[in-house]
Write a structure and sequence with these properties.
Blueprint: H1 17-20, H2 56-66
């Protein structure tokens, strides 16, 4: 719990600048104030299943059955396998080069 007299902020407070300057107005970076909220519905999985293998041979047999490349370093797969999409949002494009 915070104390206004000695300016100890509340541990649950998300904005500490209000304690320093009472006239402080929190703004988003890059002038994004008053922009509509970004809403992207989650398109997650139907079900997440954790599978454990006793040995490497069992892992290889599983990989053959699901027809995917599965190794001891594989963290997750989709079934059926999904095509890998190129990360187009990470490309830098110069003006007029498109």
């Amino acid at each position: 719990m915070g104390n206004v007299l000695n300016r100890i902020p509340d541990k649950n407070s998300t904005n500490l600048m209000g304690f320093i300057d009472e006239n402080y107005v929190e703004e988003t970076p890059f002038g994004w104030d008053d922009m509509p909220e970004f809403d992207q519905p989650e398109q997650g999985q139907y079900h997440l299943l954790r599978v454990r293998f006793d040995c490497e041979e069992d892992l290889k047999e599983f990989a053959k059955k699901v027809e995917q490349n599965v190794t001891s370093k594989t963290k997750a797969i989709w079934y059926p396998a999904r095509e890998k999409k190129e990360p187009t949002v990470l490309k830098w494009v110069e003006d007029g080069s498109v």
